[in-house]
## 1
Amino acid sequence: MELKSVMNRYGLKQKIFSIAPLFGLIALVVCFLAAATAKDLNIAYSMKNILNQSVVVAVIATGAIFIYTLGSFDISLGASACVSALVGGMVYNATGSVTLMFLTCVGVAVAIALINSVLASVFNLPVFVTTVAMLSVLNAVVLMLININGTGSQIAVPTDAVAGLNTTWFKLLVLVLFFAVCLFVFDFTKIGRLQKFLGGNPVCAKLSGINNKRLAIIAFVMSGIAVGLGSFLSITYAPTLTKNTASSVGMDVIISIVFGGMPVSGGARSRIYAAVVGAFSMTFLNQIMVMFNLNSGIGQMVKAVIFLIVVSLAMSNQRNKEILPR
Amino acid sequence: MKKWRRLTAFLLTAAMVLMMACTVMAEAPEMDESETVKIGVLVSDTTSAEALAFRAYYEEYIQNQYNVNFMYSDELKDSAGEASAIDNFIANNCKAVISLSSFDRPAQIAQCSGAGVYYAVATGTLTDEEYEAAKTNEYYVGAIGPDLMTEYQTGYDMAKYFLDEGKTKFAIFGGAIPYYTDMHIYRAAGMLAAMCDVGEGSYKDATGMDIIGKIYEDGAVETGAIGNVEVVGYVGGYDMDDAWFGKCGEMAQTEGLEVILAVGNGSDFFGAAKGEGVQIASVDAYADSYKEAMEAGTLNYLAGKFSASIGPIFMATYSAVKGYPIRDAEGNALALSQGYWVADSAETFNTYYAVDSSKEEPAYTKEMLDGLFGSSYDDFAAFVSAYTFDEIQGLK
C-alpha cells in the first residue's frame, strides 16, 4: 500500500512502464547471447544478420511514428515500399544510375504519402480509411509495374550495382542519420510538440488554433521519406524485386511500434525510439526461435502472445483506455 | 637364369599391385561422421504434397541415417526472404544450403560462397547462363532435377496418353505460367505440342517447341481449336482466393470437357471435377491426396517426383562438406537431369507409393547413397540417370 503511494507520488509507475520496452530488448539480447554461446553460434555474423533483418522495418517504423503520434494509422506502408522499390528498380534499369534510383525511391514514397495525407486532411476522411483504399490501389499498381516491365514476375537490379551499398556500415549510417533527424524534429522542435498535443487531444489542439492539416502533411512526408529509404535499403539487400517485396513490412511496422511501447493512440507519451526498440526486439525474438528450430507457426503464436501482453500492459498504464488509433 | 627372371617378374608384379593398392587406399574417400553437419534447406512452398514428402525424406530418413541436422526456412515469398533465410543458416553454422526456392538463385549462390557455405539446387536446374557463371565456383555443388527438355517431354507424354485414348476436349491448369515459371511453361508447351501432332493443327500458328515462345509472349495459354482437338478451358496462377477457386470450378465443369491437364497441383480440381466424368492428369508428387484420388478414379495419370529424388543432391553436398566435391574433368559442378515416375493406374501408383513413402526402405537407401560419397562425376551421373522405378529397384 505504502509502495503504491510512493510509486504514484513520484510517478515511478509511469517511468517504469516507459522504459520497460528497453528492458525487454536488453533481456532479449541477453537471452539471445546466452543461447548463441551455448549453441556455439557465429555471433558476429548473427549481429550482422540481425541488423539486416531489422533495419528496413526500423527505418520505416521510425518515420511512421509521426503518423501514429497523431493517433492515426497507415496500413499501406508495405505496399508503398514495394511500389517505390519497383519504380526505383525500373529507373535504375533505364538509366544505370544508383543516385537516380535512390531519389526515385524517396520521391515516389513521399508522393504516395502526400496523396494519403491530402485525402485524409483536405477531404476530412479518417486516415485509416484512406490508407486502406491506398493499399488496394498500390497492390494493383505493383502488378501493373511488373507487367509493364515485361518479365511478368520480377524487376531485377543487377546485384553488382548495389553490392557496394549492402554493407553493415551503410545500413547503420542510414538508420543512425535518419533516427537523429527524426529525434531532433520530434523532441526538439515545435513540430514534434504540436504533433504530440494534437494526438493527445485533437479538440483542444483545434481550439488552440493548431493547423492539424499542416501537421498531418508533415507527418506523412516524414513517413514517406522513411518508406523511400526503406525501399532503397530493400533493393540493396535483395535486388530481385517481385510483387511480394516488402509485403510483410506493413504488419511488421505496426507490431514493432507496439513492441517498442508506443501507445497507438498517439499523444504525449509517444516515443520516437519505440520503433527502433520494437524492430530490434522482434528480430532478436525471431532469431531465438530460429536458433531452437521452431517453425513459423509456433513463432507466430509466441509473437501473438507477447503482442497481447504488451498491449495489455500498455492499457493498464493508461487512464484513457481508448488506445486504438483514429 | 630362368629362376631369376621369374623372381624379377614376381617382384615387379607385387610392386605394381602394392602401388595400386596404396593409390586406391589413398583415394578411397572416408566418411567421417564424428561431427554433426548442419544443412539449411530453403523452401518457397511448405505445404504442398511435394514439399511435405521431400521434408519427410530428409528429416525422417536421411537425418536418422547420417550425422546431419536439417534446418528449414519458413515459407519464402521473395528474394529478400531467401537472403534472410540464408543469413540465418550461416549464423547458425550451417555448412551447406540445399535450395528448393528459385526467386534469385545467382544471389543465393553469391551469398553462400561469400560465406564459405556450400550450395546445391534440389529438384531444379540453373539456366545455361547461370550455370556458366557458377560452374567453377568451389562452393557451388550443382543441381539435380528435371531439366526443361524433360519438363517439355513430360507435358507431351501426358497429353499424348489421353489423345491416344481418343480424347479431344481438354482444359489446362497453367499453375505458375502467369509468373513466367519456366518449368510450367515447358510442360504446357509439351501438352499443346502433342495436341498439334495428333490433332493435325497448330497453336497460334506454331507447332512443337515453337509453342514455348508463344506462351512466353502471352503469359497464358489461349483456348480454342488445335486441328480436331480443342482446349476448352484454361486457368493460371495460384491466387487461391474465392474468385480463383470459382474459375477453377467453372473450368472443371465446362460443357464437353473430357480431360484436365495440370502442370502442377492437379489435386485442386479433385473436388470440382468429382462426378462429372472428367479425367484429371497432373505433375506433382506421390502423396496421400493423389493416392486416394487415383483409387477413386478421380485422378487418371500422375507424373510424380519421388521424395527420395533429393537423396543424390544431399550426398553430393555432404560429400563436398566432407572434402570430397564431385566435379567433372574440367572441375565443373554437377548439372544432371532427373525425370518423373509416371503412374496411369491405381495399381502402379500404389506400387510406387509404397516405396516412396517408406521410411525404412525408401527409393534411395543409405547403402545406395553411400556409394556416391566421393564418387567420380561419371559414376554419379550414371546413378542419377537411372531414375525410373524399375531401374532404382534393380540397383537394390
## 2
Amino acid sequence: MTATKHTLVALVADQPGVLNRIASLFRRRGFNIESVTVGHSEVANYSRLTIVVDGSTTSVEQVRKQLDKVIDVVKVSDISSDNIVAREMALIKVKSGSASRGEIIEIADLFRASIVDVASESLTICVTGEEDKVDALIQLLRGFTIKEIARTGRVAMSRGEIGPLGAAGGATTAAEARRRGRNLKTKGVTNG
Amino acid sequence: MKLSGAQILCESLQKEGAEVIFGFPGGSVLPLYDVLPQYPKLRHILVRHEQGAAHAADGYARATGKVGVCVATSGPGATNLVTGIANACLDSVPVVAITGQVARPFIGKDAFQEVDITGITLPITKYNYQVHSAGKIAATIKEAFYLARTGRPGPILIDVPRDVFAEPADFQYPTEHVPPGYRPILQGHPTQIKKAAKLINEAKQPVILAGRGVQISGAYDELKALAETAQIPVITTLLGIGCFPGSHALSYGWAGMHGMAYANLAINDTDLLIAVGMRFDDRVTGNVNAFASKARVIHIDIDPAEIGKNVPVDVPIVGDIGTVLRALNKQVSSARHLEWLRQLDGWRGKYPNEVRDSSSLIPQYVVNQIYQATRGEAIIATGVGQNQMWAAQHYTFDKPNALVTSGGLGTMGFGLPAALGVKVGCPDRTVWCIDGDGSFQMTLHELATLVQDRIAVKIAILNNGYLGMVRQWQELFYKKNYVATPLSCPDFVKIAEAYCIPALRVEYREEVKPAIEQAMAHDGPFLIDFHVEPEENVYPMVAPGASLAEVMVAPERHHKKVSDSAKLPVSNI
C-alpha cells in the first residue's frame, strides 16, 4: 500500500440508512474513497466499516471528523500508522479449457488461492491477501482471459499486543463482549 | 396508560417544553391535528406555506434559545420545509421538524403525497428519523430534542406515518436517551488552553473574531471578560452580531464581504486571531489564502470537524465556548495594546461605518431611524441581500440574539416568517422585519398569519425596485448588464391593506421618522413601504475572491481600494 492510502475503521450502529448517511457524506463533501466494506462486528447491533481513503486527494482528518459527526458512528480511527492486518478477498472467473487448466491451478497454488468452482469452460479462483497480492494474481491471470472479477475491498484491524503467553489467556469472550457493549453506552466517543 | 401515537407525540412535545408549533395540516398529519385541541398549551400557528413554518420555528429558536417546532404533511408539505431546514442546518439552529408520511403499508409504493423526506433531508439535518411504531415516538422525541439543542445545534426531522399517529401504545416518557455515538466535547483540553493563553499573553496585535457559537453558548460575559482583561478588539461575524455589545469601546464591528473596512483591515494585520464559535465561512474570510496571513490562529469551537476545515489553525480548542473561555480567562494576563487599538481607531476614523449624507431617501438612513426609534432594543429579522447588509451595518446591537438573519444559506424570504416566529417567542419585545422588495415577495403570504394569530411584527420594506444585491454585482462585475433584476412590485400598501394591516408609503426623508413612530404606536402588525434610492450600493465590499485587505469603500469617499493606504505606518493615520 502506498503512503497516501489511509485505512479508517469505524464502529457504527446498525440503523436503517446508516450506509446511506455515510455514502451521502462522502459524495457531498467530495471525499475520494477507494473502498468501503461493512459487516457485523463483535458487538450485537453494531457493524464495523473499513474505509480506504486516498490521502493525496482528500483530507483524511476531515473524513475522520466528518464521519465521527454522524450520529450513528460510535467510533472512528485512522489505523494507517498502526501495525495492522489488512486483507482483501477476490473471486476471479478465468476462461479455461482442458489445455490451460493445469497451468492456472499451478498459479493459484503459488498464491495459496483455492479453486472454488470448476466448469467445462472456466475456473473460479478465490484469493485472500493484501491488495498487492490480489493485484498480482489478477495480472498473471489476464493472460488466460478473465471473465469476471468480484473484489471485497479491504478489511483491516490493528494487530494485538504481543507478550509472553500465560495464565491470563483464555478470557471469556462473552464477558469481554458485554464489557465492550457497556462501554459503548457509557463511554460513547465524542462528536458534536 | 394507552394513548394514540398522536397523543404521545403531543405529550412528549410538552415534556420537552415546547409551547408553539408552526404548521400546516394535510392528509397524513390529520390524526395529529385531530388531537391538538386536547393540548391547549401547545399553541399552533397556522402558516400559509410550510417554508414559513420552518423559518418561523428557526426565528423562534434563535430569539428564545429554545427548540423551534414545525409540522407539515407528507409529500409537498414535507418538501416545502426543505429550504427552511437547510437554512437552520447551515446556521446551527435547533429546530425539530415533524412530517406526516403515508401509512406504513403504502411506504415505497409511490402512494399519493409520498416522498422520501428522510432521504431528501439526510444531508441537511443533524439527524433524522422515520418512526415505525407509536411505541417509539416518545424515545424519538426525547432523543431529537436532545440532539437538536446540544453540541453544535441543528435541525432534526421526524417522519411519522399516518397509521403510526393512530396506533395506540403505552406512554411513558424516558428520562434519558442518548445515542451511544454522540457525546459533544464541552471541556477544552487544558494543554491547548495553556498554549492559547501563552499566545494571547505574547500577542502585540490580537483580534477576537466571534461568531454565533458565542450566542449559542451564551458566553457573553466570558467573551467580554477576555476582551476587557487583555484589551483585545472584538470583531464579529454576521451571525455573531450582538454577542458583544456593539457600542462597547472594544467593539470594532463585523468582518467579511460587507463588514466594516476597519474590521477587515484589523484582521488583515493582526498577529493573533482568536476565532471563537465561528467556522471561517468564505463570506467572512474573502480569499482564504490571504486571510489573516500575518496571524497565528486560535480556533475555539464545539465542532471538531470545523477545526482546520477552511483555515489552518495553530491552536485548536474543541469545547463549549463558555466553558473554554472561563478556563482560558484564568490564564490571560491584563494588557493594554494601546498602539494597536490606536491603529484600529485610526482606520475607523478614516473609514467610518456611518450613514452617508443625502437629501434623497437612502436605505441606510431608514435603518438608522428604526434604530433610533427603538433605542436599539428591537429584535430585527431580515431578508437576504442589500436590506440584510444595511440592517446589520446601521443598527447597533448591544444585546445578543437580536439580529435574526439567514447567514449560511442566504435564504431570500426568510425575513417575514422568521420575524413572525421571533414575535411569537418574544411577545414583549419590539420586532421589526427589515426586508427588500424582492425578498419580501417570496413569502409575503405570511401577512395573513400575522393577522390570524395577532402577531405584531413591524415591517419595513426597503423598496428599490431591483433585486438589489444581484443588481449591484451586475453593476460592478457584469458591466451594468441588468438582466432579470429590475423588479416590478405590487403596491405593498394596498397588499397590506388587503390583509387588514395598516400601512404607509414613504418617499421622502422627512416622512421616515413619523412613519416609524406611527408603526410603533400601532398595537398590531404594521407595514411601511420605503421607496429608497434605486441604485444605492452596499459598501464596504470585498469583491468575491479578493482578500479582506482589498476592501472597497463607497466611491463617493474614495475611488480606490483601501489596501494602499492600509499599509501606511500607524503614525500617519
